[in-house]
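Obj: model holo form, ligand = fe (ii) ion.
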Amino acid sequence: MAPSREASDTGRNWQDADAGLRPTERVGVLLLNLGGPETLADVQPFLYNLFADDSIIRLPPYARFLQRPLAKLISTLRAPKSSEGYKAIGGGSPLRRITEEQAEALAQSLKGRGLDAKVYVGMRYWTPFIDDAMEQIKQDGMTHLIVIPLYPQFSISTSGSSLRLLEDIFESDPAFNDLKHSVIASWYFREGYLNAMAELIQRELQKFDNPEKTEIFFSAHGVPVSYVEQDGDPYRDEMEQCVGMIMDELANRGWNNHFSLAYQSRVGPVEWLQPYTDAKIKELGASGVKQLLAVPISFVSEHIETLEEIDMEYRELAIESGVKQWGRVPALNTNATFIDDLASMVLEKLPSAAPRPGYTPSINETMNLGPPTGRVEDILQTYDRERRVLPPPVRMWEWGWTKSAETWNGRIAMLAVLIILLLEVTTGQGVLTQWLAL
Ligand SMILES: C=CC1=C(C)c2cc3[nH]c(cc4nc(cc5[nH]c(cc1n2)c(C)c5CCC(=O)O)C(CCC(=O)O)=C4C)c(C)c3C=C
Ligand SMILES: [Fe+2]
Ligand SMILES: [Fe+2]
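Output (holo structure tokens):
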């Protein structure tokens, strides 16, 4: 059953006195995001950081010491293919620029509603890294921190990974003992977000010759199916609920189009969530769909998967499959309704919010649905109980493109391949085969 929506307090004006803060208390907001290579030279080290994350490549306990050499190997093998994609969109990811614009817009929106908060950006795999943001938060003397992962739906591989890193930082630095923090683990059900999505979809539908006959095609980033079916990742459930709620909102506005949901950007040959976007496009084309509106749904900024994969690869595939008219809904980026909803999320978490008469508890609090809101530990306790220490991300100045470092990286990687091959042959469990056919 889809949860009902959380009431938004859009339009309510908060003054600092209202926020329940003492004059010495300062509110920071931390926006968590993935990060992306800014230049083609960043692509391989960015991929290294991604594959060195044990929330992305989940090795069995006996093989964990191979995480970094394997990351080195896979990132080196994949870099040429990824670089082609980044080259096609201008030589780098727009993610940092857009996330910083979102942070600025959020700070302005909060200011307009009476809260002087500083908004920080912390990326998981590229600059500005999460630990740099936390260092700044410490230096700025923040007393309250509201953490918002910029992923509407929770996945172990995205929000979960960033929260694990954050937990590690909290635990290793006593300076954070007094920092009161609250995490909004997922927020796909919020009225502001749903309205913003419905508005964008409606606008694009109206550009078609026969808007009501257009297939609304939601394309979400995939994850390996084992995350959901073995590891308890709520991602697929949240995605399906989210799509259902957007379609409800469209129905309220008089749109009853046919719709479908598929998963894109599979990496490696293990099974990912199905249906796959490319297979679904072919199927829709074969069944006679002539008008298709693609809706990227798992991410709120334009990025390589929207600008290259959807706009170029999937568009071409759709036309080849018989689709005559194609459209794509833009990412939310700094959409005013969306930014206003982010501001509402922050304001609802202020010290005064909970005891305030008339306070609207979040849907998670009232119905115990989805990841709990609250401290990082509470959220990870729900989804990632046996978490381990995370490898720190690579720093450019530590990367050491020196001859000796390269030689040793290469040797370690080769040794890793040999050991993994041996493990594969002896255990029959394919770790390597899962990742090398990229
Ligand atoms: C909700 C969004 C995302 C999920 C879930 C996710 C899982 C996931 N991703 C990979 C591997 C790669 N992801 C890459 C780029 C990338 N991933 C997301 C979002 C999610 N990933 C975004 C927004 C981006 C693009 C960032 C940008 O630079 O614009 C890449 C690199 C690009 C490429 O080579 O295709 C890889 C690799 C895995 C393995 C995974 C789940 C386990
Ligand atoms: Fe990804
Ligand atoms: Fe991709």
